């Protein structure tokens, strides 16, 4: 096996030296080697891709649909996405100039941040949150400014935002992820409207990661773009709503002048998403079958959430009941102190249940664990029995 010439190592992107190891995947990998482990770690839906989506992908392959698509995605998919955004959220986007299909929402994060960050720029990030936002910001030479929302039930208030802006008046953008990974908390229409009014008085670009927007349990999802579309880039996709994580279809929607650099950077990185997966996404976003499948999944997730929240509260965990996504962010019982990494490690080794330490998600996460309930009720029942045995043994 070849060894890298040592002198080359000093020529690498220096921003990588600012990064910390990827805690979530690393912890999941280590836990996976434990015999008998039940993993409640990753945000991976346990449902199969609905039949209509699979049939559309197969039809695309059989039709020899194997050539380069336009960089922003096939016209059919962009039209389907425009219809989806209008139908679900009453948002109006031009499929020809205001929508770009990405290789998952992850690539959308990179393309969006690449379009706005210059070296040294500050990006506000509400935490606890998906750590990739901070990682990408650092790789691009920016500085993430974490806003700890744990004291406000994991919701960013206008007052907190204004206090942060007083200290960081030149911040370039703000990332909002809701429903949230890892907390499952989302914003009411009134909360997001008040926050939008505060942001409107600034020149912040809002990157609104709304990938879990279809998985809101009580009441509709309200996009911040309903109030400030002129300064918002929405990230969304089919991964969570249609169990299509492996198909890697996401999208970005925003005003034309913001979308120009975003779309150009996206095309330079990946050229375009694959034709068969885009055909599948058309069926996801623009058919009755696609909408029905999401509603059925959401109902199953809601039942799982109710079960897990009830059991955890009985065991001494504290949490804000999530109203979206498929995660519970629970404060560990008081007898275990505040070391979430130790708690999660001991639970995996002794209780045979893997969860993710809350401190991996930034400021406000210490003392918590993230539990994914994107698995079967049978598995969740066994996991809760194991957690109960582990917690009660420590009493």
TrEMBL record:
Cofactors: pyridoxal 5'-phosphate
All copies of domain Aminotransferase class I/classII large, residue ranges: 37-387
Annotated keywords: Aminotransferase, Pyridoxal phosphate, Transferase
Ranges in coiled-coil conformation: none
EC code: 2.6.1.-
Highest taxon in the source lineage: Bacteria
Record has Transferase as a keyword: yes
PROSITE patterns to which the protein is assigned, alphabetical: AA_TRANSFER_CLASS_1 (PS00105)
GO molecular function: transaminase activity
InterPro entries registered for this protein in UniProt: Aminotransferase_I/II_large (IPR004839), AspAT/PAT-like (IPR050596), NHTrfase_class1_PyrdxlP-BS (IPR004838), PyrdxlP-dep_Trfase (IPR015424), PyrdxlP-dep_Trfase_major (IPR015421), PyrdxlP-dep_Trfase_small (IPR015422)
Family per record: Belongs to the class-I pyridoxal-phosphate-dependent aminotransferase family.
Name of the protein: Aminotransferase
Native source organism of the sequence: Limosilactobacillus walteri
């Amino acid at each position: 096996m070849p060894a890298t010439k040592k002198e080359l190592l000093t020529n690498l992107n220096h921003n990588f030296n600012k990064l910390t190891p990827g805690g979530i995947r690393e912890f999941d990998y280590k836990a996976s080697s434990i015999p008998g482990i039940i993993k409640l770690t990753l945000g991976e839906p346990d449902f199969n891709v609905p039949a209509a989506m699979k049939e559309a992908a197969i039809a695309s392959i059989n039709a020899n649909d194997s050539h380069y698509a336009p960089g922003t995605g096939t016209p059919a998919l962009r039209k389907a996405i425009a219809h989806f955004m209008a139908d679900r959220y009453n948002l109006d986007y031009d499929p020809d100039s205001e929508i770009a299909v990405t290789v998952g929402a992850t690539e959308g994060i990179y393309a969006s941040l690449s379009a706005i960050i210059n070296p040294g720029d500050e990006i506000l990030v509400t935490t606890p949150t998906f750590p990739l936002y901070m990682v990408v910001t650092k790789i691009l030479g920016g500085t993430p400014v974490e806003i700890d929302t744990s004291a406000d039930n994991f919701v960013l208030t206008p007052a907190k935002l204004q206090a942060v802006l007083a200290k960081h008046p030149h911040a370039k953008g703000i990332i909002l992820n809701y429903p949230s990974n890892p907390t499952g908390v989302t914003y009411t229409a009134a909360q997001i409207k008040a926050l939008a009014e505060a942001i409107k008085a600034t020149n912040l670009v809002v990157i609104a990661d709304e990938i879990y927007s279809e998985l809101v349990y009580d009441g509709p999802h309200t996009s911040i773009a309903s109030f400030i579309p002129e300064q918002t880039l929405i990230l969304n996709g089919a991964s969570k709503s249609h169990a299509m994580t492996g198909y890697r279809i996401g999208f970005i929607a925003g005003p034309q002048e913001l979308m120009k650099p975003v779309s150009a950077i996206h095309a330079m990185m990946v050229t375009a998403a694959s034709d068969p997966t885009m055909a599948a996404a058309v069926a996801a976003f623009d058919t009755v079958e696609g909408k029905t499948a999401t509603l059925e999944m959401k109902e199953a997730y809601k039942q799982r959430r109710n079960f897990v929240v009830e059991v955890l509260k009985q065991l001494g965990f504290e949490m804000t009941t999530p109203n979206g996504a498929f995660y519970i962010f629970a404060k560990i019982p008081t007898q275990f102190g505040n070391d979430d990494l130790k708690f999660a490690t001991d639970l995996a080794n002794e209780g045979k249940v893997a969860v993710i330490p809350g401190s991996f998600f930034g400021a406000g996460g210490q003392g918590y664990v993230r539990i994914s309930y994107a698995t079967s009720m049978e598995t969740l029942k066994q996991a809760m029995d194991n957690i109960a045995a582990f917690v009660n043994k420590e009493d």
